[in-house]
Design goal:
Structural class: alpha/beta
Distance between the termini: 71 Å
Order of helices and strands: EEHHEHEHEHEHEHHHEEHEEEHHEHHEEH
Bound molecules: S-adenosylmethionine, zinc ion
Helix content: 25-40%
Strand order of the largest sheet: 5-4-3-6-7-9-8
Shape: globular
Radius of gyration: 22 Å
Length: 402
């Protein structure tokens, strides 16, 4: 592979790593153009937080398994994520980076070489599914795979599942929020096998639909999943899951699939466990018709201990998005054991034609009345609580009218 790069580039720094990337200003002719997809090789500076969190999660995972690990990034673009892993995560024995675009593969190789990583980092230039399939045999599989595509990871799920070893960590990005958040429901059913719903908490449903799709794909291969972390940030969602091989483990995961039933009239919502469609269609609070999202994952979407360990990895890493990440991790910790779905308080107040009450006060009052109540990273105006909607509405009225 010849490593001469003949398009405009520049050097950028993320974390403790410096890499060569396309100089984005050189490719944008009009202000509305989206620079990352205009450049000959994909690079998106806006995904820095995504990569920062990926570094923390991979390091946390490596320390948990306490051995040297092999990692694959099958859609690597300019290689910034993979090269960051090699430099910033301790205990990586081998890294395979790959991109179907030969210019991207060249740049990723250059970035590996200029960081003296040639011995540990292998750069390939082929279709991601082909590459992953070649690593799908027992003993060839990776300890961790990070699937970070344009749009949906759905086309790569099957081969990523086959190429991950028992106990391995799979990370998935999805940027196709229009299908996942219910703007294009048919596309969501097609790609993820579940129906979305355009509710105030549609981003949480998006994470649950993505994980639901992973659950069913892994189950086909006799694998159960344990979700250790997830987040919804800007225009994308991420999920991190550890694999456990065995039919029993797969059955246990499938048991965590189900549906979310939502009332657009009064904001009541409830869950229905199991793969069979829910029979119940009437809202218990107001009698209106309930809408259904799913099948999707009803299990945990964060692990408190994993989030605490990730938090412990932040200091001294020179993360560009450190403040935002600490906030995200702190919220994730408190969300881990909280009820499924949150109430978007602004949406409720909008419908009730009321001012938005102070959220901290609202949560204090809910807790005082014996309910769980925590904020959520999904929405700065969201509250996770087990209080019924009628209680929440009465409280909001009292808080804004006194
Ligand atoms: C969103 S970019 C990757 C960004 C990178 N992971 C990062 O963190 O900067 C997606 C990449 O997938 C590559 N790609 C698209 N289809 C592919 C395929 N079938 N196999 C391998 N790579 C593919 C594109 O060339 C592009 O570089
Ligand atoms: Zn209702």
């Amino acid at each position: 592979m010849k490593l001469s790069i003949d398009f405009p580039t520049e050097v950028v720094r993320e974390g403790k790593t410096s890499v060569v990337v396309p100089r984005l200003e050189a490719y944008v002719k009009e202000v509305w153009e989206y620079a990352p997809s205009k450049a000959p090789v994909f690079y998106n500076p806006a995904m820095e937080l995504n990569r920062d969190v990926a570094v923390l999660a991979l390091q946390t995972y490596q320390r948990t398994v306490d051995k040297e690990i092999s990692v694959c990034e099958p859609l690597a673009g300019c290689g910034i994520r993979g090269v960051r892993f090699a430099i910033e995560v301790e205990g990586i024995r081998k890294l395979v980076l790959n991109d179907i675009n030969s210019e991207a593969a060249k740049l990723a190789k250059l970035n590996a070489e200029r960081n003296n990583l040639a011995e540990r980092v292998l750069v390939m230039n082929e279709d991601a599914n082909l590459l992953l399939s070649r690593y799908a045999a027992p003993r060839k599989r990776f300890d961790s795979i990070d699937v970070d595509p344009f749009g949906s990871p759905a086309p790569y799920l099957d081969s990523a599942v086959r190429a991950l070893r028992d106990g391995g960590l799979l990370a998935l990005t999805a940027t196709d929020m229009a299908p996942l958040s219910g703007v294009h429901p048919k596309a969501c059913v097609r790609k993820y096998g579940g129906k979305p719903l355009r509710t105030g908490y549609c981003h949480e449903l998006a994470v649950r639909l993505l994980i639901g799709s992973l659950t069913m794909t892994a189950a086909k291969h006799g694998i159960g999943i344990e979700v250790v972390f997830s987040h919804s940030t800007d225009h994308y969602i991420r999920a991190y899951a550890v694999f456990h091989r065995g039919a029993k483990q797969a059955d246990n995961s499938v048991r965590k699939m189900g549906y979310v039933l939502h009332c657009f009239n009064c904001f009541h919502r409830e869950t229905s466990k199991g793969i069979l469609p829910p029979w119940k269609r009437e809202c218990t609070e107001c009698g209106s018709k309930l809408n259904v999202a799913g099948p999707l994952w009803l299990g945990k979407i964060f692990d408190e201990e994993f989030s605490v360990l990730m938090e412990g990895e932040v200091a001294g890493r020179n993360l560009g998005q450190e403040k935002k990440i600490l906030k995200l991790l702190s919220l994730a910790k408190s969300e881990a054991e909280a009820p499924i779905t949150y109430y978007a308080i602004d949406k409720i107040c909008d419908k009730l034609n009321l001012r938005i009450p102070p959220l901290t006060k609202t949560m204090d009052e809910l807790r005082g009345a014996g309910f769980q109540a925590v904020p959520t990273h999904f929405n700065s105006r969201g509250i996770r609580t087990d209080a019924p909607i009628s209680v929440l509405k009465a409280l909001i009225r009292r808080l804004v009218q006194t």
